[in-house]
Amino acid sequence: MEGKARFIFPAILSGIMAFLMTCIITFINLGAVDGFVLKWLKAFCIAWPCAYVAALIATPFARRGTAMILARLEGKS
């Protein structure tokens, strides 16, 4: 990815993942209690920036790892 896309893509991906994961984990920990949505949104607002930074750091490693796996699967090791 080039230019702005290398920052926008991880922002969208980490946002979707943080949204889903914080919902699931908050529900597992608390159940359907009063104030669930506010507690979930608080967790999401904390998790998304952390997930974004993690995605920015992990992306180069994930690309290299993907290339290595594909090379082995295609017999180009």
Descriptive notes:
The protein has one domain (5-73). It is 83% helix and 0% strand. The protein has two helices and no strands. The radius of gyration is 17 Å and the shape is elongated. The two termini are 24 Å apart. The model has no long low-confidence stretch (mean pLDDT 89).
Number of helices: 2
Give the integer mean of the pLDDT values: 89
Q: Give the total of domains.
A: 1
Query: What overall geometry do the principal axes of the alpha carbons give?
Result: elongated
Measured as a percent range, the helix fraction is: over 70%
Q: From N to C, what is the helix and strand string?
A: HH
- By secondary-structure content and strand pairing, the structural class works out as mainly alpha
Give unreliable regions as ranges: none
- Radius of gyration from CA coordinates: 17 Å
Instruction: Say how many strands there are.
Output: 0
β-strand percent reads: under 5%
Largest sheet: none
Distance between the termini: 24 Å
Q: Quick summary of this structure?
A:
The protein has 77 residues and is an all-alpha fold. It is built from 2 helices and no strands.
Key words describing this protein structure:
77 residues; 83% helix
